[in-house]
Amino acid sequence: MSSNGQESTVVNPLEQGALRRMAHHYHRYGIVTVTDLIREDVRKNVRAEADRLLEKYAERRDLRLQTTGYTRRSMSVVQSETIAGNSELVTSIYANPELLGALERIAGEKLHPCPKDDEEFLITRQERSGDTHGWHWGDFSFALIWVLQAPPIDIGGMLQCVPHTEWDKSDPRIHQYLVDNPIHTYHFQSGDVYFLRTDTTLHRTVPLREDTTRIILNMTWAGDRDLRRELQGDDRWWEDADVPAAAALDD
Q1: Torsion of CA 171, 175, 176, 181, to 10 degrees
Q2: What is the Cα–Cα distance from 246 to 248, expressed in whole angstroms?
Q3: CA distance to 168, 172, 243, 250, per residue, from 69 (Å)
Q4: Do 32 and 22 meet the contact criterion of CB atoms below 8 Å apart?
Q5: How many helices (H) and strands (E) are present in the chain, helices listed first?
Q6: What per-residue confidence (pLDDT) applies to 237?
Q7: Within 13 Å of residue 179, how many CA atoms lie on the same side as its CB?
Q8: Rounded distance, CA 227 to CA 25, Å?
Q9: CB atoms near residue 133 (< 10 Å)
């Protein structure tokens, strides 16, 4: 139920024990599946909305990014401002107080609207053999990822994470983190949703081994710490494929 006693339009009511278990997993691993928190009809509507936006606004990206050790970005994207200006559904879910309240109980802290308009939302579609969102962190603390279409596990597209790591854009040391820490791998079904601590969880998607489709919607929020931090580096590749930190893909 919502705070005014009416049925929520976005979230399912969960027992406090379920939220506590989610919070425990999230703080240990930097990620937790929250599919049961989101109403099924909402997840279906978001899938249809992403398909509509991709059909009208998708832009292709193929590059490597200096600030993450030249890891690869190969996918189609719909930019944040485009989503914000053309989807009342997505913006209303993002601001939903019941959803925010549940995520804050999992995170153990307040979630603030993302202070950068170009990073509030992102839709990505991986579609070609080799497509991947290579090893990276996020500039802001929290992301809710809607896995709208997932390929079969033997084709790739799984999420891999190394929690409790730090991003130094001048010296990302990704390979050292991979050597020094276990890598946790997650397979999601179409319709799943997960909550990720993006600024301290090194993560990537396993490259697709054949042409298929993987679609996600990313919603980003900031923590208190993010509001006091000045972002470093011009590496906002989703907004501009030609930013200084990007290198054109040559393989």
Answers
A1: 130
A2: 7
A3: 10, 6, 15, 16
A4: yes
A5: 7, 13
A6: 86
A7: 4
A8: 26
A9: 23
Residue type, 210: E
Biggest distance spanned by C-alpha atoms of the chain: 56
Short-list 193, 148, 128, 143, CA closest to 50? 148
- In whole angstroms, give the CA distance from residue 193 to residue 156: 18
What pLDDT digit, counting tens, does each position of 191-233 carry? 999 999 999 999 999 999 999 999 999 999 999 999 988 776 6
Name the token pair of 135. 């090893």
pLDDT computed for residue 6 by the predictor: 57
pLDDT of residue 251: 56
Tell me which residue of 48, 100, 86, 131 sits closest to 221, measured CA to CA: 100
Q: Which residues have a Cβ under 8 Å from the Cβ of 17 and sit 6 or more positions away? A: none
pTM above 0.70, yes or no: yes
Paired residues of 220 in beta bridges: 143
Cα dihedral across residues 229, 248, 145, 53: positive or negative:
positive
What residues form DSSP beta bridges with 147?
A: 216
